[in-house]
User: Fold these one by one.
Assistant:
Number 1:
Amino acid sequence: CKGTTKDSLLLGVASKEVKERENLAKGSVDADVSVDEITTLAFPSVSTADFQFNNETASDIIVEKVEEFVNKLENARLVLVDLSHGSKILSLVRTKAEKRNIDSKKFFTFVGNITQLYSQGGLRCNVIANAANWRLKPGGGGVNAAIFTAAGLALETATKERANSLLPGHAVVVPLPSDSPLYTREGVSHVIHVLGPNMNPQRPNSLNNDYNKGCSILREAYTSLFTGFLSILR
Ligand code: AR6
């Protein structure tokens, strides 16, 4: 898997680990679990693009929350995804996760479109997170537009069955119907919508630079997201 290799090189991990991680992505790992049994959550950096949350602060919160949940995962793993190799948030998180010695088999970063991780990047992620809007509606841009477009009507219908709106800091787990193209092409069985804090004054309900509230909402958002993921595992 190209994306994983490049990312791993950036991380500067030992070549044995790089091989292991490539094998994980390809499904030929030597360990006693096959890759199809490794449940993986791919998630974007919530609130740091359209919602304009500060990258440095968001990266601290991501690493803090990953560290809190990573040992509860058993065989599962978490992957932070962004679109480009120049992603500031990926590089901040990589550096901080390395400093905290977070197990790089259980948590790593990956460059790719969250709706094409398997078909384009060879990385199987059966659960993906969406940085949603409060109405849980398609469109708007960013990850939300990409996921709703790729998943088709099936996701809209399944989402409505679970919730009509979301409060900041909350998440909702939506099982994806097996006729959704995201399910058939990418192997995604669940989408978890999560709503982060909005720091963008051009969007409704902006926190107007109140980072006290913003940080506590972003922490709650990752707690809800990872708790939702754990609920799928059990
Ligand atoms: N694949 C992977 N990562 C992506 C993709 C993609 N297809 N698209 C964007 N990112 P954002 P927010 C990264 O703006 O800040 C929407 O309009 C992006 O580079 O999607 O929480 C909703 O409707 C960034 O790192 O989410 C909401 O109203 C991260 O995903 C609002 O935006 C989050 O960027 C939510 O804004």
Number 2:
Amino acid sequence: MKNLIRSTTQLAMFFVSQYLRPGGTAVDATCGNGNDTVALARAGAKDIYAFDIQKTAIERTKAALVKENLYSENIHLIQDSHENMGAYIKGNVQAVVFNLGYLPAASKEIATCGETTVKAVKAALRLLSVDGLVCITMYSGHPGGEEEKRKVLELARGLDQRIYHAAYINMLNQQNHPPEILLITLKRGVEFEED
Ligand code: SAM
């Protein structure tokens, strides 16, 4: 078995894979270079919705899927902000992956930001099936990252414990702002009110 704790990315995808059933629906809320979309396809997701605001990210994700022979008509690459995911997906989603921050090897100016990320996480929770998982990898070392993390954790802490379980993983002895993982699962169905 791989030493999962050494890699936040592997650890996050390990959790996600436990919640995905073959043939299920998954969302990559920040597809970037496509690594997470590829991992979701490999983990057995049939329908995948992958979002990014940057055209470059959508192109890189498509190229990554094609390279791995995983690209299909069931994979929807959508250039739009993740808070709009509800306009594209009906529901019954088993896993939603957020990998926050900026696109590696591109402008650091274009990064996820707290306000829209919180809206997007709320949108993801609305689409989640019972026993589904939202997995958020957070980076606090770049401008705006700490504030974004604070807002997302505040949202998670405020979730009704009768409906959700939220868990938070941080690499306690690592220096220089290591990535952190937030996991939220839906225990039972809920009727949402408008914001
Ligand atoms: N998951 C990616 C991978 O496997 O390569 C890495 C994602 S990268 C750390 C963060 C991505 O979030 C960037 O590509 C950025 O363009 C995207 N992003 C920033 N704001 C966004 C938004 N509002 N909606 C969707 N994506 C956004």
